[in-house]
Write a structure and sequence with these properties.
Layout: H1 2-32, H2 45-68, H3 70-94, H4 101-107, H5 109-123, H6 131-142, H7 153-174, H8 181-203, H9 247-251, H10 253-261, H11 284-294, H12 297-304, E1 313-316, E2 320-324, E3 332-335, E4 342-346, E5 349-356, E6 361-365, E7 368-374, E8 380-384, E9 387-393, E10 399-403, E11 406-412, E12 420-424, E13 427-433, E14 443-446, E15 451-456, E16 459-464
Parallel strand pairs: 2-4, 3-5, 4-6, 5-7, 6-8, 7-9, 8-10, 9-11, 10-12, 11-13
Antiparallel strand pairs: 1-2, 13-14, 15-16
Helix pairs in contact: 2-3, 2-8, 3-5, 3-6, 5-6, 6-7, 7-8
Family: Belongs to the CAP family.
Organism: Caenorhabditis briggsae
Biased composition (Polar residues): 209-225, 291-308
Length: 468
């Protein structure tokens, strides 16, 4: 009987010891686990540098957007969302080896959606009083695609910045006297782009750096912008994937334009040769036929009918880019591949035309409310028979000729400080130039319109009047 009791007691003691060991083990695990830091919670150095460069400017830009209100306030959410996805992509790259093209497409899908949302917002707000603000942001956000440029991210982003600066400078010039919140908004956006450009140039010169801190990844707690408390805007339809060319992408103005430009030099294969007998200036009989057909009884009905609207055209004929009859098209882009190519812009109104690459000459003929921005010219830029024109060069411009034009504003970069300006029979001409090496701001100056001529020393001497 005593042996049985002793055996039972020993079994109970053994069980109790096992229970105590398990309890001690679990306590040890719980107390020891926090002492081991998780590598996923530490912020990579690349992200710290990105935040240091841009965080303050993003906050200032959002605060000014709220102050302006309207569409700019709605634009604020698109800016925050796109920059957050951009930051998350850079962070994700810090923890991964560079994947193949399919993997890249999946990773950038979220950022691509934000970029497309900004483009759709611009397309849906063309009549907005803040359209220059919207275009400036849309161009800047498009530059976030530098993350998938393997060797040349800096030129890619710089191209987007130059496009954005075209609209930023328009805002700065429009509000330079009052220097209100619009002026500060444009100035802050410009500073943000400058800092982001500097960050890319210093830390990702030859492409986004991958796997700098293996295993790290962004979390909801470390996102740049919290989604709570921000006013919501209607979500855009899902944008197309970068891995396929969907019909939705081609519906946008930029995509459709790029599709037409992709024909390149092959477009000339469909053109017919124009012989001398088909040209009116070499065959007077053709001019006579046209005059006789409009005279007589039919002439009255023709004069009373509405003018025929010509179809818009962007055509490369082998020597000259012809951009004609563009109306309310602010997405015209022409890429020049040879410095011998010339640009002829005819009868365009309320449009913005961008010339990428250095061309030979540019001519604007019969245009109104049209803006042209180009990288630089070997020859001259000529504006004739036009009204309310804006011309901006980002590089060199030897000479600009303004003839029979009412309203022409010329923006000269620092590289075009020696530009010659020739004008005749024109009015309301202004030149804005970057004169201060330490500042990026433009100084506006008016061209004289009225002159006085005197006879001095048996010679005619002409000078601008004081009123000019």
């Amino acid at each position: 009987m005593e042996k049985i009791l002793v055996t039972r007691l020993e079994n109970i003691v053994t069980r109790m010891e096992n229970v105590l060991l398990k309890c001690d083990g679990s306590k040890t695990d719980k107390t020891d686990s926090p002492s081991v830091p998780s590598p996923k919670m530490s912020v990579p150095k690349s992200i710290e540098l990105l935040d240091e460069a841009t965080e303050d400017k993003i906050e200032q830009l959002c605060a000014l957007s709220t102050k302006i209100g309207g569409d700019v306030n709605l634009l604020k959410n698109l800016i925050k969302d796109a920059l957050t996805e951009h930051r998350n992509f850079v962070w994700t790259a810090c923890g991964l080896s560079r994947p193949n093209d399919v993997g890249i497409t999946k990773l950038i899908e979220s950022l691509s959606k934000k970029i497309c949302s900004t483009t759709e917002f611009k397309d849906n707000h063309r009549t907005s009083p803040f359209y220059d603000h919207i275009c400036a942001v849309e161009a800047a956000i498009g530059g976030l695609g530098w993350v998938v440029q393997p060797k040349t991210p800096v030129p890619y982003f710089n191209e987007a910045v130059e496009t954005s600066l075209f609209y930023i400078n328009r805002i700065l010039m429009a509000h330079k006297t009052s220097k209100n919140e619009h002026f500060e908004w444009a100035k802050t956006l410009k500073e943000l782009l400058t800092k982001l450009h500097s960050y890319i140039r210093r830390h990702h010169t030859t492409g986004l750096i991958w796997n700098s801190q293996p295993g790290t990844k962004p979390t909801k707690e470390t996102s740049l912008v919290s989604s709570a408390g921000s006013p919501s805007i209607p979500p855009p339809p899902p944008p197309p994937s970068l891995s396929s060319n969907s019909a939705g992408a081609k519906d946008s103005g930029v995509a459709a334009l790029l599709d037409s430009l992709n024909t390149g030099l092959s477009a000339t294969s469909r053109l017919k040769k124009v012989t001398p007998d088909m040209q009116t200036h070499k065959n007077p009989s053709l001019r006579g036929d046209k005059i006789s057909s409009t005279n007589g009884k039919t002439g009255k009905s023709v004069s009373q009918s509405e003018p025929v609207k010509s179809s818009p055209k962007i055509l490369w004929d082998g020597k000259v880019w012809k951009i004609e009859h563009q109306v309310e098209n602010r997405d015209v882009v022409v890429e020049v591949k040879d410095k011998k190519e010339a640009i002829y812009i005819y009868k365009c109104s309320d449009s913005v035309i961008m010339i990428k690459g250095k061309a030979n000459t540019i001519t604007l003929d019969g245009c109104s409310k049209t803006s042209v921005v180009f990288d630089g010219l070997l020859g001259q830029c000529e504006v004739i028979n036009s009204k309310s024109i804006q011309v901006q060069t980002l590089g060199e411009l030897p000479i600009i000729s303004i003839q029979k034009t009412d309203g022409c504003h010329v923006y000269l970069s620092r590289a075009a400080s020696d530009t010659q300006i020739v004008s005749s029979k024109s009015s309301e001409m202004n030149v804005s130039a970057q004169l201060d090496d330490a500042s990026e701001e433009y100084k506006e100056m008016a061209l004289p319109e009225q002159f006085v001529t005197r006879i001095e020393n048996k010679k005619l001497v002409t000078s601008p009047t004081e009123l000019a």
